[in-house]
Amino acid sequence: MKIRFEIFFCLGVFLISCKKGKNNPESCNDKSTRRDVKIATDAQVDEIDTVSIIADIDSLVEMEVPCVKRGTERQEIEKKVFRITGVVEKVDSHWDGDWKVRLQTKKGNYINCEAPNSNCRFIPESRFLPEIMVSRQWIIDRQDELEGKTVTIIGVAFLDIDHIFPRKAAPNEFEIHPILHIQFQ
């Protein structure tokens, strides 16, 4: 029992002092998370077609997509920008400093849409820096009034790595990351 306590105590001290996420405003995911694709600094970023495709959230999160792993290059679906409308289920500042807006559909599906951490040292390299900054500030300014409201989000498609553990996310790990525009419907 004493050993378990010591292990948990040491783990807690480590997490509190950790230079990741909410304890570090400059945090951004490391390369093992496909960071360059998430924040649009990868070699294929100029291939993204910025004409937004109006899409139904359920069709996006239920479609078959390629399985990605750490280091996987931008996929064809990730070269598209989508315009989606849905009800905000939750808004929060994520552990990595990103602002997450999770939408839920009438069918019970979720899609996570994220505005990257503006303090991440790689953000200034993003093709979409102005859009990221404006949408992020819009979310921050309205964070207390978004839940339960219908919003329209325009953003770049992103396939997250399989997190293995259950969470409220699209069954195919499809996300909008980065958000380029957000507004009330």
Question: What is shown here, in short?
Answer:
By secondary structure, this protein is of the alpha/beta class. The protein is 22% helix and 29% strand.
Characterization of this structure:
With 185 residues, this protein is α/β, with parallel strands linked by helices. The protein has one domain (25-184): Beta Barrel (OB fold (Dihydrolipoamide Acetyltransferase, E2P)), CATH 2.40.50. The chain is 22% helix and 29% strand. The protein contains four helices and six strands, in the order ααβαβββαββ. The chain has a five-stranded mixed β-barrel. Strand 1, helix 3 and strand 2 (80-93) form a beta-alpha-beta unit. It is globular, with a radius of gyration of 17 Å. It starts with a helix and ends with a strand.
Largest sheet: 5 strands, mixed, barrel
Order of helices and strands: HHEHEEEHEE
Q: Low-confidence segments, ≥5 residues, pLDDT <50? A: 7-23
- Report strand %: 25-35%
Inertia-based shape: globular
Q: Give me the side-by-side strand order of the main sheet.
A: 2-3-4-6-5
- The count of helical stretches stands at 4
